[in-house]
Design goal:
single chain; 342 residues; mainly alpha; Rhopdopsin 7-helix transmembrane proteins; 2 domains; two-stranded antiparallel ribbon; 68% helix; elongated; Per1-like; membrane
């Protein structure tokens, strides 16, 4: 659930992530610094080693072993990215000395880099969310398979949604993995994998919310529920990856799917008077309140913690509570079905 809310507003945080239209990169002093850096491979006392591979055409057009090292290319620690980073840091020091506030460069705040981590706080918090989902899924797996009774004949779990939640767990871990990677190194491949994983999780979460709240147990009925949404989500992901990474359209799709889920879960909990509805309501409305962190955007504190990073931090306790609800739901359903079978 927490990751689902994050997916809705992920696009808001990076809506202009790849556009060169921010105030910082429009600054002529910054642009001149980057141009000079790429030509001279230096910014003051800082030497940019990667730029030596662009210094003359003989190196650029030579055989593969004379090119920029592959590990540097993979990490995107290339001439342009390093020049942009160091020029940005230098320009921000100058602006600070003049009493000016930080501005965005190429759609992002001026984060201080730690080794290859472009946004270390968000990357670390994404990794924590990944760990929380892994821990939640693992505890759910142990609960339904080893702690709760199994059906005598088939040795399968009584809980009818076990398999669906396993898939949800894997999709959640995959989404947070690519979120951590995207915040570590932001380039086209990691961006598309992060967006695709988030949309896939959001679409599947919508399917799961409908199957659970409408108590759909029959496999044929589940296919009927899932097929239209699955087809749309698949088409949307293909559109983003192979036609156009349309941030505005993606934002609308994510918001619609997310809002539908929010109302479905909240209304269902109240109508059915689910015994664990308080947990569900806290996750739903807690996630809604945490959205304010995405709306109230501010420059990174000490160069590391911005509103988006704090949003990542807010999803950690919500994830723990969400998996607690899932496990409680499994226990309640198992108890009810065992009583009916006697």
């Amino acid at each position: 659930m927490a990751r689902r809310w994050f997916s809705i507003f992920l696009v808001l945080g990076f809506l202009v992530g790849d556009l060169d239209g921010s105030a910082g990169d429009a600054d002529q002093i910054y642009k001149t610094c980057v141009d000079q850096c790429e030509k001279t491979a230096s910014i003051g006392d800082i030497f940019i080693q990667q730029c030596i591979f662009l210094a003359n055409d003989a190196v650029v057009n030579s055989t593969w072993y004379m090119q920029e090292p592959l590990y540097l290319q993979w990490k995107q620690l290339n001439c342009r990215s390093d020049c942009r980073y160091h020029c940005m840091m230098q320009r921000e020091k100058e602006r600070e000395a003049l009493g000016l506030s930080p501005v965005k460069y190429h759609g992002k705040w001026p984060f201080k880099r730690i080794y290859v981590f472009q946004e270390p706080a968000s990357a670390a918090l994404s990794a924590f969310n990944l760990m929380m989902h892994f821990n939640g899924w693992l505890s759910f797996f142990v609960l339904v398979n080893y702690k709760l009774p199994l059906r005598p004949q088939s040795r399968r779990t009584y809980y009818e949604y076990t398999g669906l939640w396993h898939i949800y767990g894997f999709l959640s871990m995959n989404a947070w993995l690519w979120s951590a990677i995207f915040h570590t190194r932001d380039f086209e491949l990691t961006e598309k994998l992060d967006y695709s994983s988030a949309v896939a999780l959001l679409g599947y979460s919508l399917i799961l919310s409908l199957l659970r709240t409408f108590d759909v147990k029959d496999e044929a009925s589940r296919v009927m529920f899932a097929a239209p949404i699955l087809a749309f989500v698949t088409t949307h992901i293909l559109y983003l990856n192979f036609y156009e990474l349309d941030y505005g359209w993606n934002m609308k799709v994510c918001i619609v799917m997310g809002v539908v889920q929010m109302f479905v879960w909240a209304i269902w909990a109240g109508v059915t008077r689910h015994p664990n509805r308080v947990k569900l309501w806290i996750v739903v409305f807690g996630g809604a309140l945490a959205m304010l962190l995405e709306i109230y955007d501010f420059s990174p504190y000490c160069g590391y913690f911005d509103a988006h990073a704090l949003w990542h931090a807010a999803t950690i306790p919500l994830t723990i509570l969400w998996w607690s609800f899932i496990k409680s739901d499994a226990e309640d359903r198992t108890s009810i079905l065992i009583k009916k079978s006697k």
